[in-house]
From TrEMBL:
Keywords: DNA-binding, Transcription, Transcription regulation. Belongs to the LysR transcriptional regulatory family. PROSITE patterns: HTH_LYSR. The keyword Signal does not apply. Transmembrane segments: none annotated. This is LysR family transcriptional regulator. One of its GO terms (molecular function) is sequence-specific DNA binding. GO terms for biological process: DNA-templated transcription. SUPFAM superfamilies: Periplasmic binding protein-like II, Winged helix' DNA-binding domain. It comes from the Bacteria. InterPro entries: LysR-type_TF_proteobact-type, LysR_HTH_N, LysR_subst-bd, WH-like_DNA-bd_sf, WH_DNA-bd_sf. Residues 6-63 form the HTH lysR-type domain.
Length: 309
């Protein structure tokens, strides 16, 4: 059934006057003239078809109905004010985002200016894999590696990517790298998280080196950074190095790549699934990934969603 509510301006004028028991003070609070306040009170009395004040010369007195009504209105307006302040405060709080350094530097930071509330994102980076223990990680959202499910955490696959060798232009010239077989004799960057050089050599139809020739890093981000510094060749994820390739700091070597996999996902507490700021941020991330053509496939997204329920 539709609500039948009196004009809000008239309600505020009556409540303020009843609280101060003075039209002039109510007018000052509302930034109105006393005559405007008196007009609003008369409009409310006409709407209710009952008197709310008794006029005794220059003094006001609440009727029994006015006293009961004003008490209820003050309680309701106080609650309304408290709820509004809470929402306004929440609307200005920072969004704490935890990610790997590589994701932050190569993908997130360059496009934060496109986000409506990007200036309120409080970005932190982790030394290792970002923790999804929201009871202790001091984060609202985590950009985690892959899309492994975590109990009580919503995991939304964000982007997937193929992988191919990259090197600095200077190293490519120095080592004379012209064909895939040349990589068997140069320094290769390896990573502990997911080293797939053997898979790449197989896809390229080249026999992999018998022993890894090159340093091992904790993750592909560091191995890619080492390649950028001219220290060797790294297997980089296309999604993460497009900007670096465009700048000329790295070059892609050959057309062979490894089939795409999910490399990053958005994670946040199940209990905060309806948090408007988190939902806006996650939606923006998915839009940016889709714009780049690297969004995780819907079928994979659906399977991950099933695992969290």
């Amino acid at each position: 059934m539709a609500r039948k509510l009196p004009p809000f301006a008239a309600v505020k004028a009556f409540e303020a006057t009843a609280r101060h028991m003075n039209v002039t003070k109510a007018a000052e609070e509302m930034c109105l003239s006393p005559s405007a306040v008196s007009h609003q009170i008369r409009a409310l009395e006409e709407y209710l078809d009952t008197a709310l004040f008794e006029r005794r010369g220059n003094k006001l007195a609440l009727t029994l109905t006015g006293r009961a009504y004003s008490g209820k209105l003050t309680t309701l307006l106080d609650a309304f004010d408290e709820s509004t302040r809470a929402i306004r405060k929440a609307g200005h709080r920072p969004l704490r985002v935890l990610s790997t350094p590589g994701f932050a530097a190569r993908w997130l930071v360059p496009r934060l200016g496109h986000l409506e509330f990007g200036n309120r994102v409080q970005l932190r980076v982790s030394e290792g894999a970002p923790s999804t223990d929201f009871a202790s990680n001091d984060a609202d959202v985590v950009i985690q590696w892959c899309d492994d499910p975590v109990p009580s955490v919503v995991t939304e696959p964000l982007m997937e990517s193929g992988r191919y060798p990259v090197a600095s232009p200077e190293m490519r010239r120095r080592e004379g790298i012209e064909r895939p077989a040349d990589l068997a004799r140069v320094t290769l960057m390896h990573d502990e998280t997911m080293d797939t050089w053997g898979e790449w050599f197989s896809a390229a139809g080249v026999e992999a080196p018998a022993f890894p020739c090159g340093p091992t890093f904790p993750n592909c981000e560091l191995s890619t950074t080492a390649a950028e510094a001219g220290q060797g060749v790294a297997l980089a994820y296309d999604t993460m190095v497009r900007g670096t390739l465009e700048s000329g700091r790295l070059e892609r070597l050959f057309d062979t790549d490894i089939l795409p996999i999910v490399i990053y996902s958005v994670a946040y507490p199940e209990s905060r699934r309806d948090d408007s700021m988190i939902r806006q941020f996650a939606a923006w991330l998915h839009e940016e990934a889709a714009r780049d053509g690297v969004a995780a496939r819907p079928a994979r997204f659906a399977r991950a969603a099933e695992r969290t329920t």
